[in-house]
Specification:
single chain; alpha/beta; five-stranded mixed β-sheet; 50% helix; elongated; 10 strands
């Protein structure tokens, strides 16, 4: 289904192209191919294979090495250099760098025109896309919806051509990650294919390169929003394991949108998935976050900082000061107690302390704040304040 460097090099038209470096990265997927004729690579897209004569870096050793490094960081599929025009051989520094990042570095023989090579790659990519989509539609329809472009009557039949049901809910899973050496390429499509049939039997998916790797998940049957979210969370956990196993040293973050209905809410879903990553990284020590769990914090973020800071301090400043001066855990105890819906036994188990310790701390909190924790109104205000405090903790501690 996907055209990798390894598969491409087995094609008769490309069998003269040799792998010079980065042989461990031959499973990289090729999404597009272009000829590089200038030194600016800011336009490079993930999965793009570059063909070049080497003219733009022929006399600059640092540029040669930096090019390999930057292309790898940007998730390029590989670099193919035609020799004996401007470079007699591929420089050893580039080969060394390619091996370091497992970045495919290919040698094109002098006799092979770049235009012929470009045509061969493009021909195979077009054929792969036709097989993958059964000759129907184009992923551009997803890009149009994610960008929030004007509504088009052609969107629905195009999506149906992909097997997407416009009448059923869907969830967006955004995946961002970087390796220690800076490489951010993950063949998510192939990893999804590794999931067993049992794991995939309840949902359909579409993998799109859009500001990170984006997966659109949709249940095959009439599932509830809650069930769809549980499916999406399960898939995220499985993918996290696969990515971590195949890419040790990876810094990974995943964000899930809420279940969305209606194709024109796809952009909103993408924004939610992105915010789940942004807010989740500040609040939770996990790699996977869903927007529903940080939605309140997102709303808090939209309140002017001065106003929310003043409100939070008016509610919980005394216990912030107490914890700071006594190395206490009143704020943590209060948060756990409220999360446990006022059940002292549950809070004690979560905190790994005796229930009497929790009771003593709660009594101290009531004295410091002058409130009754059994009041539902007070409990709501305190929960809200603690969520806001987590977002503003550094400033709150200084101001308290």
């Amino acid at each position: 289904m996907y055209l990798t460097i390894e598969k491409a090099l087995k094609l008769p038209a490309l069998n003269q192209v040799e792998v010079i470096g980065g042989s461990q990265g031959l499973t990289r997927v090729i999404n597009s191919v272009s000829i590089m004729d200038h030194p600016d690579i800011s336009w490079i897209k993930r999965g793009e294979l570059l063909l070049t004569t080497g003219y733009v870096f022929k006399d600059d050793l640092n540029a040669q090495i930096n090019l390999v490094r930057e292309l790898s960081k940007r998730g390029s599929a590989g670099l193919a250099i035609k020799i004996k025009r401007f470079l007699s051989t591929i420089p050893p520094g580039m080969v060394e760098e390619a091996n370091k990042y497992n970045f495919p570095l290919l040698e094109i023989p002098y006799e092979m025109p770049l235009s012929d090579l470009l045509f061969s790659f493009t021909y195979e990519l077009v054929n792969k896309e036709k097989v993958k989509n059964n000759g129907k539609g184009s992923v551009e329809v997803f890009h149009s919806l994610l960008n929030g472009e004007n509504r088009s009557s052609s969107f629905i039949p195009q999506l149906q051509g992909f097997g997407f049901n416009p009448d059923r809910p869907f969830i967006l899973l955004l995946i961002n990650g970087t390796k220690e050496e800076g490489d951010s390429f993950f063949p998510i499509g192939r990893m999804l294919e590794k999931l067993s049939q049992t794991e995939r039997e309840d949902f359909k998916y579409w993998n799109i390169d859009f500001d990170g790797q984006l997966i659109i998940l949709q249940g095959k049957g009439m599932v509830t929003d809650e069930h769809l979210l549980m499916q999406a969370q399960r898939i995220a956990i499985l993918l996290e394991g696969l990515i971590s196993k195949d890419n040790p040293g990876t810094s990974l973050s995943m964000g899930l949108s809420k279940a969305k209905k209606g194709i024109y809410n796809m952009k909103e879903g993408f924004i939610e998935a992105k915010k789940a990553i942004q807010l989740g990284s500040r609040l939770n020590p996990t790699n996977i976050n869903d927007y529903a769990s940080v939605e309140v914090e997102d709303l808090i973020n939209q309140i002017p900082k001065d106003a929310i800071t003043q409100y939070v301090l008016s509610m919980i400043q005394p216990i912030i000061v107490y914890d700071r001066e006594n190395e206490g855990e009143l704020l943590k105890t209060l948060e756990t107690y409220l999360f446990s819906r006022g059940r002292i036994e549950d809070a004690a188990r979560a905190l790994f302390v005796h229930r009497n310790t929790v009771k003593f701390r709660l009594s101290r909190i009531e004295d410091l704040l002058g409130v009754d924790l059994k009041s539902r109104d007070i409990a709501f205000k305190l929960q809200f304040s603690i969520k806001a405090a987590k977002l503003l903790l550094h400033d709150l501690v200084k101001e308290a």
